[in-house]
Design goal:
Strand order of the largest sheet: 2-1-6-5-7
Bound molecules: 6-chloroguanine
CATH topology of the largest domain: Alpha/beta knot
Radius of gyration: 22 Å
Number of domains: 2
Shape: elongated
Low-confidence stretches: none
Structural class: alpha/beta
Length: 246
């Protein structure tokens, strides 16, 4: 899959290619990452990329022309059929289903804004989709673009080994993940749950499903409301709640 990111801080975005899962995917040429800086497309001696908002008010707005030129160059480096996505708090909420949808694309151009935002006419004429990480404000779209790339790349075939397979991740079944434990058996006065030491693989899978359901119920009832629980899942959740005496 091919990514291109348009950003005033391309070095910041480039760091995702230096670490972990995304770093390995880049080294193995499972993905490519192009970076384009609107400042390299400014037309004046000061390399101006922002200007004051029409109508007044605080802050600055990113200008149409340098961003449009950077987007055009970025898009030209990717295969046909790659959408341009603008990261902003006004976008549709990013989630695992959206990551999955993006992972089926040949690539994507990600536009990271700074300042108060980008000239609306750029969004209307050049952006296919506007995406937000959630209801809070970042100083720029770079961290959001990096988050989207990370979430998408780990879903690409061959990126994760069998050991770290994404099928068991949080949200894949629409639920939170179950708790995890490693050695020693007792730490901070707390024992590992007995079932995890039992070697009973069916029992372990059942316990993990129960924990995932219980934690989702307690911490993210909004997630559970979106699911139609099977009879087995409802039984596990009822058991969890009884065991918690809730
Ligand atoms: Cl995508 N951008 C910015 N600037 N802030 C955000 C965000 C995006 N998602 C949540 N907050």
């Amino acid at each position: 899959m091919h990514f291109a990111v348009v950003s005033l801080f391309p070095e910041m975005v480039g760091t995702i290619g230096q670490y972990g899962v995304v770093g390995r995917a880049l080294q193995r040429e499972l993905i490519t990452l192009e970076l384009e800086n609107p400042r390299d497309h400014a037309s004046d001696a000061h390399r101006t990329v922002d200007d004051r908002p029409y109508g007044g008010g605080p802050g600055m707005v990113m200008k149409f022309e340098p961003v449009a030129a950077a987007l055009e160059l970025a898009k030209g480096k990717l295969p046909d059929g790659c959408p341009t996505v603008y990261l902003s708090p006004q976008g549709q909420a990013f989630d695992q289903a959206m990551a999955k949808r993006f992972s089926a694309l040949p690539g994507m151009v990600l536009l990271a804004g700074r300042y108060e935002g980008i000239d609306e006419r750029l969004i209307e004429s050049r952006i296919d989709e506007e995406v937000s990480l959630g209801d809070f404000v970042l100083s720029g779209g770079e961290i959001a673009a990096m988050a989207v790339i990370d979430a998408v790349v780990r879903l690409l075939p061959g990126v994760l080994g069998d050991e770290e397979s994404a099928v068991q991740d949080s949200f894949v079944g629409g639920l939170l993940d179950h708790p995890h434990y490693t050695r020693p058996e007792v730490v901070a006065g707390r024992r590992v749950p007995d079932v995890l030491l039992s070697g009973d693989h069916a029992g372990i899978a059942r316990w993990r499903d129960k924990q995932a359901l219980g934690r989702s119920h307690q911490r993210r009832p909004d997630l559970l409301k979106k699911l139609d629980l099977t009879d087995e899942q409802q039984t596990l959740l009822d058991e969890f709640l009884k065991e918690q005496r809730l």
